[in-house]
Amino acid sequence: MTDLHHLPVSEAGALIGARKLSPVELLDAVLARIDAVDARLHSYIAVLGERARAAARQAESEIMAGRWRGPLHGIPFGVKDNYHVAGLRTTGGSRLMQDSPPQTASSTIVARLEAAGAVLVGKLNTWEYGTGNGQVYHDLPYPAARNPWDLGRFTGGSSTGAGAAVAAGTALFALGSDTGGSIRLPAAACGLQGLKATFGLNSRAGCLPNCWSLDHTGALTWTVEDQAIVLGATAGHDPADPSSAAAAVPDYRASLRAGVAGLVIGIVRDLGPEGDALDPANRRALDEAADILRAAGAVIREVVLPAPLSHYREASWVINWAESFSIHEADLLERPHLMGRALRAKMMTGFCVRAVDYLAALRLRRALARATDALVRSVDALLIPGAFHVAPRFGDPETVPHFTRDTACAVFNLSGHPALSLCTGYDPDGLPLNLQVVGRYFDEATVLRVAHAYEAATPWRQRRPALTPVHEEPRMPDTSPPAVPPELLAEAGAYARRYGLTELSPAMLAELAALFDKAASAGRAIPRMPSKEDEPAHVFRVPLPR
Amino acid sequence: MTQPDHAAPLWALTVAQASRRIALGTLSPVDLVEAFLARIAAVDGRLKSYILVDAAGARAAARAAADELAAGRRRGPLHGLPFAVKDNYDVAGLPTTANSRLRRDAVADRDATLVARLRRAGAVCLGKLSTWEYGTGNGGEYGDSPFPTTRNPWDLERFAGGSSTGVGAAVAAGTAMFGLGSDTTGSVRLPAAACGVVGLKPTPGRVSRHGLLPNCASLDVPGPFTWTAEDAAIVLGAIAGPDPADPVTEDVAVPDYRRRIGRGIAGLRIAVAAEGGEGFPPPDPDMAAALAAGLAILEGLGATLVETALPIPAAACFAVSRLIGPPESASIHEAELRDHPAELGFALRDKLLGGTLVRAADYIAAQRRRREIADSVEGVLAGVDALVTFGTHHVAPRLADGAAMTAFTVESTMTPFNLSGHPSLVQCTGFTPAGLPTSWQIVGHRFDEATILRVAAAYENATPWRARRAEVR
């Protein structure tokens, strides 16, 4: 029998429901797994042993008394440390939050999972505030999470601990958050299924914001069926989140095994010049996935995105930089030295974005979302590359930002469509491959159905990572100040002073000067909408009368 | 109270009066339109309310309206009534110049949704009214627009209020029976205040913006100008309601605004914020005295007044709106500023240049603050039926007085309700000794334009101000 800590949620839940497995026994197995491996994995920021044991004991007694709550009852899970849990401090993986007071209320979807009987094991590792500039500098208060498939490699970010935990069995499932791929990238790097649901389906209330326009909450799981179970518990309208949608939540498990016969599935093979970066192994796996689904009766149709990938990326960067900076403005102005380098670099970029470029990005977003929706509605589901590369080595830090940037993930943060990162096997080094399955708005059921058909037809879920000791130590990326022309340095310095950024060291100022240029080029690169009537995506609406 | 019907020249009839005469068959749409064309010919050389008078189109529409009446078909209360629109609304076949050198040949191929609705209701479009370039600017008048500056009908040396400059002037002077303008931070209510007419900024989502040139996507709201509150109720009833072409419009039922308008205000609870608030100089004494007298009238009509203050003063709200309006305008007109800066008027160029300098962080901070402002206004409205505040703090300034021009546009209590998304109406509360209109503002719950119209009508019926018309000398 599989180790208890490697049971999928569906199996563990069935055993618990049948009283063949005790929630206490299951939790003990997971805590033992954490003891055994987390010192080298670093998936957790905080393990809540006592709290979890109390919850597991309560689950056990409820079940023994005949009050089984459902398939999540007694299932141990972890949450990225940007989710609030009542009574606990949320650190966001940041030095800035080390002295923050305990939270008074749990985030909505954590509360919903706990109400469904799931047992919270702890707070998982994350990039600082769930974001950064794509690089890992090993300068945060918690050591970087390691990839269970090769402990010398990156887990993918920003939900680093969530990816590591579910692959290594230190949690049966985990919550992450996704602004431009932060659920799907760790899922891809760690061989998991990671779902960014439709914008508005999962509440964001009580999760630290990174970028209001693009943030999504969601889970990383071992199987597609586990996604269906967890989404069934987290999804649904939440009045505490103004972006929450009032959409019906179906039983995602009911249609999971309906197969794909007759479904029209689009495949995006051609991603333009940016697509050249796609690893051959990921490209092959994408083609093989199409073959497998075709053999299962799907009609595969080659399609292309309605705009160059660069348009999606530039718009999402500018929106993300600007909104993130708005959130952390006071910290950058007053305590920049407490920020990790990755967050600080992103904040300094956001500091430089002009409102007209931000508005151009929001106007482009509305148009891209509309055009992308026309494509998605022309099929039942879509296959498209997610992360282009396998998990990079910390020993070769120059490849880390490429893993984060070379993706087609942000497309669906901008458009809001549901997108699932699906494990499509392993490369010759045993590193997980991936693609994205994308569906229509609020049609997660079809995404899961397609993903499940693929998963059931392939052997990938039978392999688990070995967590063999590390062969290669991380190397710090080059952090020497960039060479910038003096006039640019002067311009950036004047701008920094004008807007109150006075705490920068000379090296930081040189960094700002380079980012000043980066923000301006990204802003200028955003294609302008042809019509004055094309509105930004965020236009204010008043609440309807009750 | 309005002038007795029989005593008024045709151009001075209210919508309600003219509508009644047309229904009775005692007034022909053709005669009515001719009266307005004659009025335009008589005064608009001095007033400059129009950018384009479509006499031929109006005559044809009036004849068609008359023919329908002859055939026993009356479309409703606006059948045969002449109106005009700010020149940022599309009217099929006419250029939408927005008073910009860059748009003199921009002929629209179809009507804006609101224009189409008015025409479907039988109303007759007289033409396009003057506006600040693109419906915006920096508060100043520099005399450098392609069309001449509109004058205030109560004193031709004075400003008509912006940006819907021609609309306020036209309705006050009788060169249009009613008009449509647009309001981003006061552009309907400022001209209404300056010209002594009723200007209504409805709830965002209540009326469609389709076919209206945008100025600021997150604040723009179209709105009607009328002589009386009852007229505003009639016009709003014809233009309100969802429009699939404008995704911001909401599918909220449109009540019969006229039905409850005469019910009086006995028993209504009306909050009063009778201070201009911190950050702006006090409102003109004439304005303040008129507000105080008006409140006594409301009380006499049976309303319960509740003293309050805006928790976030108007000046602080203005500081927020100036970080939203200019960058959004700059985003909309970015290409013109880059490629044709010399063809823009100074006021627009000044605003757009300022907008390009705003950082995203400050824009977003302003949008975040907006939510707080909206909640604070909700708090003020909790437990009351409406709110009375100052609208403009000053009477119409002299066009030659730059500082007074800026103060008129900036120092008002209007932006809080653009930011918060509450409907608000400006109406005339009398005249200064020099004969310039004073005004106040009535604010309501979201989508409850009916109550503010009812309060405005009660006040109007209890005061003599609607009997006085501008002489345009």
UniProtKB/TrEMBL annotation, chain A:
All residue ranges annotated as the Amidase domain in the record: 25-448
SUPFAM superfamilies the record matches: Amidase signature (AS) enzymes (SSF75304)
Pfam families assigned to the protein according to its UniProt record, in alphabetical order: Amidase
Residues covered by region (Disordered): 527-546
Name of the molecule in the record: Amidase AmiD
Gene that this polypeptide is encoded by: amiD_3
UniProtKB/TrEMBL annotation, chain B:
Domain Amidase: 31-453
Gene3D superfamilies on file: Amidase signature (AS) domain
Residue ranges of coiled coil: none
One Pfam family in the UniProt entry: Amidase
PANTHER family cross-referenced by the UniProt entry: AMIDASE AMID-RELATED (PTHR11895:SF176), TRANSAMIDASE (PTHR11895)
Protein name: Amidase AmiD
Gene that produces this protein: amiD_2
